[in-house]
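Sequence, structure tokens passed on for absentees:
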Amino acid sequence: MKDGFKPLKTAVVHPVDSYSLLGAIASAQEGLIDPILIGPRAKIEAIAKQEKVDISAYTIVATEHSHAAAEIAVQMAGRGDVEALMKGKLHTDELMEAVVAKECGLRTDRRMSHVFIMDVPNYPKPLFLTDAALNIHPTLMGKKDIVQNAIDLFRILGFGTPKVALLAAVETVSENMPSTIEAAALCKMAERGQITGGILDGPLAFDNAVSKESAVIKGIISEVAGDADILVVPDIESGNMLYKESRFLTGSDGAGIVLGAKVPIILTSRAGDNESRQASSALALVYKRNCEMQGIKT
């Protein structure tokens, strides 16, 4: 039991390589999850044997392939048999196809989106990044939900009121750059109460969002500029590159989950190491248990 929290009963979907199986086991050993391993039994047991780990304490739900593993895991979550899903060795779109299926029961009235929480060495506080993994080219209303999901996560984790930077290539509105128009529209939506709980500003270029010096040089007067808590990217390409550049060039660590479904989804890279999977499991656990304590329905 981690920090007094009961581990999340978690369906681990298709853990048929070393990264996904060892990451799930490491999370279980830390008291973060209570895993149910879903996938081809022979492959799961072969990886365990190869890595010399004992998985006899864990339930295995045998399936023929990854697609079936995703469907069964989602069905278990829909019935309430598990509290979270964890991605194993399968593509994100394969898992999410099962999650968003109308008959599965995991959809809510909120668009699903992914949030990374990054520990960046030269930034003074945790930095949230969304959406760098799920929504390819979201619409304005899709971005509204993406922003709200990130704000809600920030507040549920107990961090208070976030400063939200809506990123673009420039800090001025231009009809030639739709992302700048959408950023301005999202700020107005927040003023009108369509987005709640955060302080929004945008469009902001990346340097203006995280560097006070840059914001001053460019004459930007803003509560958010230079002190952002949440970075909202225009699309998945910019977000994915930003996350991976931060991780591989600055040594940033990160945890990530999908919000907007009825259960949190622990979604890491297929090449993610044990530490990233444990961090994401811890994030899902704290989020889920804090929602329960605060009476918030996920």
Q: What stands out?
A: Residues 1-108+261-298 form a domain with the Rossmann fold fold (CATH 3.40.50.10950). The CA atoms of residues 167 and 206 lie 6 Å apart. The chain has a mean pLDDT of 93. The chain has two domains: 1-108+261-298, 115-255.
